[in-house]
Every structure is written in C-alpha cells, then in structure tokens.
C-alpha cells in the first residue's frame, strides 16, 4: 500500500517498456518489509539533465536506477561517485541524500559476474570477448578483469572506444591481457554481448564472426527478450548460453543497498 510515508524510487531509460527492474525491485522491497516503490520513467536524452535536476528537489525521492542510453551521460550529472564509476565512465545507480546531493555508482559489472557465479560459472583464467564499449560494457569489462579472466578482447563498432576501454582496463588490471580488435570467436571461452543489439525486433547480430561451439559460454546482458539473436545462434551451434535476467537479480540487492534501502525494523 502506498501512503504519504512511502519512499519513491525510479528507473530511467529510453525506451522503457522492456525493463524488468520495477517488478524485481518492488518484490525486493516487499521481502524486506520496506515502505518504498520503484516506478519507470521514460526520458529522452535531450531531457535528461532537466529530469535529474528535478529529482534533487523531491524530498521523498530516494534514488534512481539508470539504463540505456543514459548511463554514460548521467555520470557528469552526479555530485559525486563511489567505487569504480569514474574509471568506468558510467553510472547505473544514484542515491539522493537528504541535502539533495546525488551520489552515483556503477554496479552492472558486479551484478553480471555475480549472475555468472550463481550459475556456477567461474571466469577465472578464461579467454573472454566483450561486445560493446558503452556504459554497461565498460562496467562488465572491469568486473571480468577483477574476477580474474586471463584475457579480454573488446569489440566495438567504434574502434577508438574499444581501444580506450582496453587501455583503461589494462591500467587498472595489468595482469589481464586487454586488447581491442576482431572477436576471434572460436578461440574464446566466454563471449558477452553488452551492446543493445537484440533489444529490438529486427536487430542484427552484434558480431559477424559466429564460430560458436560446444564448451564455450555465450552470455547476454539484455533482459528482454530472454533469447536474443546471439543466444539463439550460439545455442544452435552447441554453446552454453547464459541469459541476462540473472544479472538483474544479482544487481537488485547491490542497487538497493546503494540507495539506502534497509530491512524494516521488527
């Protein structure tokens, strides 16, 4: 039941209809007995700054989850960031403090790796390939490096962005062989799609080299549809596929904690 005491939270995206976070987070609130509600906000990029400024002035607003395409642009709209958000160059969760200050964090990557772990997938020592170099991809790159992959090949339509991400990962994790270039799909133990390709009907595959095979894991960051074109192609060729939803489930607790959500007192 929503009352005058209920704390408000949101998720912002463009488009918004595909997001699964509201039901997941509201279920989490209920499990904690927490008097809060999270609702979706559909905001176009040119209106993002105005939207964020408005949130500073809403006294009962607790925090915001940020997704495509706003994760990179929102970094500079935060008053401060924690963790590795600055190195990653993106934010996916914001806490509003009582004085209206907005504190950002980037939890996509940690949630993604925890989702793999929940499916008994240990990435340590793996040769990995990451498709994409945007906000979520950057977070996943850092998290895979932190988790101990042997190598990380970053593939992106803009070669410059891939090279920049590889350089930043190598600076923070010198033991990981981080590089940009072609996917070399057949040689990888793990292939991760962290692009938005597959989100909309008719989207092309996020890579041309589809030499998937058994003994290989192909993972997705997209939640809906569950089986994206790359997952369908990989499954047809015998690879083990990993859906995007576990990433969200593992992120929920991390995001709620950052936004100051605590269990109700007995």
From TrEMBL:
Keywords: Amino-acid biosynthesis, Aromatic amino acid biosynthesis, NADP, Oxidoreductase. The keyword Oxidoreductase applies. This is shikimate dehydrogenase (NADP(+)). It comes from Aureimonas fodinaquatilis. Residues 123-196 form the Quinate/shikimate 5-dehydrogenase/glutamyl-tRNA reductase domain. GO terms for cellular component: cytosol. Pathway: Metabolic intermediate biosynthesis; chorismate biosynthesis; chorismate from D-erythrose 4-phosphate and phosphoenolpyruvate: step 4/7. GO terms for molecular function: NADP binding; shikimate 3-dehydrogenase (NADP+) activity. Its EC number is 1.1.1.25. Gene3D superfamilies: Leucine Dehydrogenase, chain A, domain 1, NAD(P)-binding Rossmann-like Domain. It is an enzyme of class 1 (oxidoreductase). InterPro entries: Aminoacid_DH-like_N_sf, NAD(P)-bd_dom_sf, Shikimate_DH-bd_N, Shikimate_DH_fam, Shikm_DH/Glu-tRNA_Rdtase. It catalyses: shikimate + NADP(+) = 3-dehydroshikimate + NADPH + H(+). One of its GO terms (biological process) is aromatic amino acid family biosynthetic process. Residues 11-94 form the Shikimate dehydrogenase substrate binding N-terminal domain.
């Amino acid at each position: 039941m929503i009352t005058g005491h209920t704390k408000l939270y949101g998720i912002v995206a463009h488009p918004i209809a595909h997001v699964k976070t509201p039901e997941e987070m509201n279920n989490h609130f209920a499990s904690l007995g927490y008097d809060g509600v999270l609702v979706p906000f559909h905001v176009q990029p040119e209106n993002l700054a105005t939207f964020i400024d408005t949130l500073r002035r809403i006294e009962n607003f607790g925090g915001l989850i940020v997704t495509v395409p706003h994760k990179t642009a929102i970094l500079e709209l935060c008053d401060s960031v924690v963790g590795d958000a600055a190195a990653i160059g993106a934010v996916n969760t914001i806490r509003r403090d009582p004085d209206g200050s907005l504190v950002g964090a980037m939890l996509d990557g940690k949630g993604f790796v925890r989702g793999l772990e929940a499916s008994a997938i240990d990435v340590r020592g793996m040769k990995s390939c990451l498709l994409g170099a945007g906000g979520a991809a950057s977070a996943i790159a850092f998290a895979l490096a932190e988790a101990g992959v042997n190598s990380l090949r970053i593939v992106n339509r803009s070669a410059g962005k891939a090279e920049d991400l590889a350089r930043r990962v190598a600076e923070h994790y010198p033991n990981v062989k981080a590089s940009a270039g072609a996917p070399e799909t057949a040689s990888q133990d793990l292939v991760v799609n962290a692009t938005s390709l597959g989100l909309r009907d008719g989207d092309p595959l996020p890579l041309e080299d589809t030499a998937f095979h058994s003994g290989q894991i192909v993972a997705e960051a997209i939640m809906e549809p569950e089986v994206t074109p790359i997952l369908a192609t990989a499954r047809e060729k015998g690879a083990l596929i990993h859906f995007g939803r576990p990433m969200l489930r593992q992120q929920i607790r991390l995001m709620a904690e950052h936004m100051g959500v605590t269990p109700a007192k007995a």
